[in-house]
Amino acid sequence: MAQSSEESGTDADDSEELHSLDGLDGEDDSNRKWVRKRYPEFNPKTDMKNPTFKLGMTFDSVDTFRKAVRAHAIKHKRDVKFKVNDKDRVRAVCNSDGCEWIVFASMLAADKKTFKVKTLNDNHTCAMVFKNRFVNSTRLAERYVNQWSVNPDWNFSGMAQQHARLWDYCAEVRRSNPGSTVQMKCRTVRGDDNPHFQRLYNCLGGLKASWRAGCRPILGLDGCFIKGHHKGQLLAAVGVDGNNQMYPVAYAVVESETKETW
Questions:
Q1: Residue 160: what pLDDT?
Q2: Structural contact between residues 116 and 58, judged by C-beta atoms closer than 8 angstroms
Q3: SS3 label, residue 235
Q4: What stretches of 15-136 show up as alpha helix (H) in DSSP?
Q5: CA separation for the pair 68, 70 (Å, rounded)
Q6: Residue 74: per-residue pLDDT
Q7: Which end of the chain is less crowded, N or C, counting CB atoms within 10 A of the terminal residue's CB?
Q8: CA distance 199 to 194
Q9: Max intra-chain CA distance, the chain
Q10: Which of 119, 7, 145, 139 shows the shortest CA–CA distance to 73?
Q11: What is the CB-side half-sphere exposure of residue 84 using CA atoms within 13 A?
Q12: Residue 111 CA, distance from chain mean position
């Protein structure tokens, strides 16, 4: 159930967000010290990696609140959109059918800058999505600005170096997931003594055991093209569980869909 306070107008709390310290009532306003009521405060430097919203939480500006909502949507892979988005109030909701996630914040009358969360339902009941409206050029620039600052020639093709760690990945899967089947094949390239990645097969032990124990004795096979810098195809073996829902069993990354790769 959503927690909520009044979303329109001025809260009674708003008029008393700032309180003077005891014993200063007789002093001139220019010397008066003010203290803020104890609401949780969002720290952009430490909290932006995984934003957590709380009823009454304050943000130093509307921009910080918007960035926190975007970061939440990206971190948790949810289809979030801004239903109301202006300088005085912002309401973000989950765009997935049936999901009642919502966060609403508005400007405090006390300082005309601070935003406070006044309505919150922080429980997503929807499935994750893998296409996010907030992953754009601006977000990518913010995410990788440090890499570009240190190395202006850095580009995404440098990620190919991660292939060198695939042997470690296979070893870790076997160690942490007993019963897993992980196989990787490399090929040689003329003029280069280093092995080159060709294909990878992965069937986690837990998925394998669960399919045998509780799924129908059926496997569906399919493949799709991989778009991006590193081409190839993704092959998948999918089962059917007791609720007639898809159950992933194994996958493979291959150079092409052939009889040999299957």
A1: 60
A2: yes
A3: strand
A4: 44-47, 62-76
A5: 5
A6: 92
A7: N
A8: 16
A9: 88
A10: 139
A11: 12
A12: 32
